[in-house]
Amino acid sequence: MEVSTLFSTPVWSKILSEDFSALLKKIIEKKFDQTGALISNKGGYQSNNIRYIKDEDLQNFISVLNRNLQSVIEQCEILGNRKFEIGNCWVNINEKGNSNDQHYHPNSFLTGVFYFEIENDSGDLVLLRPDLMKHYTNIMSNNENLFQLIKVKPKKNSLIIFPSWLEHKVEPNNTNKPRISFAFNVKEINDLNL
Ligand SMILES: [Fe+2]
12-191 has which CATH code? Predict the structure, then answer.
């Protein structure tokens, strides 16, 4: 029989070719926020919102992310003249053993993450099934439409964007190198507190 896959969960990805090494150096030095915050991270460093810090490398990087984001927004075919861009963003540095608990991103449309430094075993991004099938845990399948979770192994310089309502977590970093990522939430421009 023919099958239709309804209500799918889009996940976009792209390897960016730009050189962000100057920005990465500042991130490693925690130049934008020395103290950090405790949000979803179990150990490691997570900065507060750094969206509006006046730094040329940071703002150029956010502009590159925003440009890539706009092609994703176009694919969403949103009705009405509504405009979206990066609303808040932060840096994550997971050292060996650090991970991020299961969470989602409220008050946001899409969420993205860019990986500055990531090794093969420094923590997969785990996307959890969003619908009620997750309660039927005895059903196991080889068909990816019936998976309970999907593990994404991000690559260095990759940008991943997914719906903010999609619950996710980050597995522990099993390497001796820090896992460095930059995450952001996408909001309607009218909702930004500029
Ligand atoms: Fe997250």
Answer: 2.60.120.620
